[in-house]
Amino acid sequence: MKKKSIFFLLIIIINLLLTIHKTKATEKEYEFDEEKDEEMTEKQRELIRRYEEEQTKQTEEEEEGKIKSSPNMKIQAIMPYNGDLHLKPGNTIRVVVGFLNTGENPFVVHYITGSMLLPDMSRILTNFTPSDYHNTKVMPKEEVSLPYLFYLQEGFEPRNYTIIMSVLYEEFAENRENFTDIFFNSTVIIDDITGSVDLSGVFTYMLLLGGFSYGGFRYYKYTSSKKKSAPSPNLTGKGKNQKINDDDEWLDGNARRRKKQKMKKNTPKNKKDQK
């Protein structure tokens, strides 16, 4: 009966833990995390404002055919920790941007920014915070690598998206000229982190429950074996011991009486009477 009770109790505990974990997982909704935008510092807001002004200026110049990428600047980018382009929401993504100046004049890097769009590029879903590189110089024939970090908000549905990243830089020549390059334009895959957490959570719960169950079984087996090996009370033996004690008391009494009688016989009065 005890083994059956323990087994049913373990089944109930497993079902309860799985239900709680599943409830927590289903409570997570895919909503854009707007709190990150509210937590931005004034410096970041000012940086965004300046970048937007630059973007407006670029757009106007681009419409006039004045802005373009420089043939003397080669730009490449890699995601060292996300080479397969699988991204997890709620994480900071690191991008390394490499600049190679093949010209004769120095360049200055101003800003790097990016956006995430729907796969068909019909709508921008979020803009990443631009990074100001404080006029980092790239001298002629020099290669410079700069890190760009952006935070991928939680709440995006697991599917394919398009990420575009661009850089604003300037050439120091007789006529200073601004350039912009879209150095990253690729499809990325947002992973379903909820599903992976569920599987790992269930596996962890099963391991813990298995350990507790094994420990409980060993403890139950140990206590049962101790109970079986313990000697049971023997009433016959107790009565026998009592009888032995009574016999000892009787012998002691007889010995004392005999000793007294012997002592009386050896008194002077008794010896005189005997003569």
From TrEMBL:
It comes from the Eukaryota. One of its GO terms (cellular component) is endoplasmic reticulum membrane. It is found in: Endoplasmic reticulum membrane. It is a single-pass type I membrane protein. Pfam families: TRAP_alpha. Keywords: Endoplasmic reticulum, Membrane, Signal, Transmembrane, Transmembrane helix. Residues 256-269 have a biased composition (Basic residues). Residues 41-59 have a biased composition (Basic and acidic residues). Residues 30-40 have a biased composition (Acidic residues). Residues 1-25 form the signal peptide. Its main location: endoplasmic reticulum. This is Translocon-associated protein subunit alpha. It comes from Anaeramoeba ignava (Anaerobic marine amoeba).
